[in-house]
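User: Can you fold this complex?
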Amino acid sequence: MQAILRAVIEEYVTTATPVGSQALVERYQLGVSSATVRSILAELEANGLLTHPHTSAGRIPTDQGYRFYVESIAEAVPLPAVEQLMIRHQFGQVEFASEHWFRLAATTLASMTRSAGLATPAKPRDAHIRRIDLVAINERMASLILVLREGAIKQALITLDADEPIDQPTLNAVAAILNERLANQTAMRAEARLATLRDDDRVQSLARRVGERVVKVVRAYDGAAIEEVFSDGLLNVMEAPEFAQSDKLRRVFSALENRAYLGQLVGSVAGAGRVQIYIGHENQPLDMRDVSLVLAPYGRPGRAIGVVGVLGPTRMSYSQAIGTVRFVSGLMNELVDHLYA
Amino acid sequence: MQAILRAVIEEYVTTATPVGSQALVERYQLGVSSATVRSILAELEANGLLTHPHTSAGRIPTDQGYRFYVESIAEAVPLPAVEQLMIRHQFGQVEFASEHWFRLAATTLASMTRSAGLATPAKPRDAHIRRIDLVAINERMASLILVLREGAIKQALITLDADEPIDQPTLNAVAAILNERLANQTAMRAEARLATLRDDDRVQSLARRVGERVVKVVRAYDGAAIEEVFSDGLLNVMEAPEFAQSDKLRRVFSALENRAYLGQLVGSVAGAGRVQIYIGHENQPLDMRDVSLVLAPYGRPGRAIGVVGVLGPTRMSYSQAIGTVRFVSGLMNELVDHLYA
DNA sequence: GTTAGCACTCTCCACCATAGAGTGCTAACC
DNA sequence: GGTTAGCACTCTATGGTGGAGAGTGCTAAC
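Assistant: Here's the predicted assembly.
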């Protein structure tokens, strides 16, 4: 029974055509005849794990079938050692900056699984201010550059309606005050420290105003969901035969553009702590009904967390995908550890 | 003759079906009968401006036909005042940071022209170092943050194989030296100034090593082609009926992924100084043969230049596209001027 | 519980006929 | 000479038909 479901799924995953009882007995050592297989297939269909495109066609797995498969039957296939080595090598080659790692992760996942690879940068929970810089643009505007201890850099334009025009030396003084008081602080503590600034001194009053903006930027960053999802290899997915009709193809594409939903998924994966799988109709958005996602978090819970994973047709090799995603997330763990140690 | 070509193109652009002589006399005041139109159509076809999908079908423009049209017949249709106002309003709304402008430009172009909108950030010619920051990551690694006067921020990881472990105070001292010597310098001048650093002093020697890296990063940035092309609204293009077959659809998609070629085009547009149009087969890459681009530079020649434009099917409304692209590039000009004034 | 046999159903493909759109050509017209 | 009406011709698109083939579900026997 499970053996047959497994055989159907694995056959369908490779051939992409509905699989009949005959093909099963020919290609798998099931030890029974096609007639027996047929009755079992009928049973699996009654349980909602398989369907029929039409009467005289073979069976294809339903989303429920895949769900049962990944939970009870499939074992993660670990990535072959050779490829593990190759990937490690690639990560070693790349410019040693976390900015590049998550992109490389997506690219790697894409080429290893022949699906679309997804990855987000590692995002800290409560960011710490590292350094504040102010650069004059003109007499009333300045560029605020905010470096966070966790590696992210935020930039904002500030308009200062001061009575007198602002020059760079003033800005430097303001920045010095802010750096002294806010360095290594979270948004909350930074806010408290701003309260001690006096309003009757021009520079201090400017510093307070800029400081409030800084806190706002940090807060926005803390509060923001992981929004930046980098993807690569969408073309792999588009080549799958199930997307031969152009409307389905369009749907896949708009699925990947659906950053809102991806962001939401990424959020729950980050919370879950291990590989999560979302299959076809389990995704609410209609665009997503034809695709599955295999996602895993990486990083250090409570400090910085990101997500890597793949997006492919529901007919994907889940065992392989899980193994590969698991490996890449582990690798990213190591890298983050190395960086934050 | 030109009136007929114009009618064919404008009709085809709106209907997306081959246009016959009868349809032309019905819908356009040409003052002649369908028979006359037919003979003119035959002539236009002999000149290579029109084709036939098959004998009993109407005419469709060739890429040459479009080329002739945009050069000799079409006038740019300026964007209606209402929409100009709306767009200005949107640009006013957005967080006042150039980072967001070019994305908004792409989005705006996409929705206005119902094609894919493209935009690159404004890239300076010879970047000036504004500020250098060093943040310790661990005993051997530091994060280099480099703020350029032109607004860009570059980040790199540095590994310092110093004899003794590196701490943040040391890095601060190094950064102070570098800021003092390199601020407001271009890569070339910065390099010269580094030469005066002495090797026998530990901090100065570190500063020299970091400084060399800084110069390298700035050089890389100066030398890089405009590489970051942001695009939006690809879905608009994918909905065009000419991309109903999924292989064509895939090609459009991979066209937009073809960053190398886009970068190259962007480069020549930046040099050209005005709206440039690339129609279908005029693009070398096969992926690009079904699409046209209307691109325009923005910014200040010699200081900072970026590109905005649209990518759509060859069957696009060039007049409208040119008008819209021209308006948006003009708007971006104003914004850049305002910022760099 | 398993199996062989068989009728049945449905898709896929090739083939064909027809309607319709649009052309090119010719001969007449101003 | 340019323009026009008329007409035969060509090609596509559409829809219907009829096997061939795949695969099922059922039944009866083991």
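The two ends of chain B are 49 Å apart (CA to CA). The interface with chain A takes residues 95-99, 130-131, 133, 135, 137-138, 141, 143, 145, 147, 149, 151, 153, 155-157, 159, 234-235, 238-239, 243-246, 249-250, 253-254, 257, 339, 341 of chain B (CB under 8 Å).
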